[in-house]
Amino acid sequence: MRKATASEWSSSEGRQDGQQLNGWIMEDDKDLSVTAKSDIPIGHQVALKDYRSGRYVYQLRVDIGKSGAADREGEHLHVHNVKTKRW
Fold it and tell me: Which helix (H) or strand (E) holds 73?
């Protein structure tokens, strides 16, 4: 069974603070609902679960870096709080 990962939910449209985000994990046939805790710009990610500082962050099941701060479900994830492996 696949775990819901933190940054798989990439926004194709901007999302506003307080907006309900709904999705579906196809492999598990599981519905997912997260409330945005801040504005999320187009193309940025949202945390699908709570993360402690230093934990690995995954996008589409690929390890893309580590959480630089304690991130909570629904928070905006990007270069300001995720230390990417690329740079």
Answer: none
How much of the chain is in helix, strand and coil states, percent to nearest 5? 5, 40, 55
Instruction: Indicate whether this model's pTM tops 0.85.
Output: no
Q: What percent of the chain has pLDDT over 90?
A: 11
C-alpha angle 68-46-77 in degrees, rounded to nearest 5:
25
Name the strands in the sheet holding 9-10, side by side, starting at the edge strand that comes first in the sequence. 9-10, 45-46, 76-77
Which of 51, 54, 86, 56 has its CA nearest to residue 71?
Answer: 51
Whether the Cβ atoms of residue 27 and residue 2 lie closer than 8 Å to each other: yes
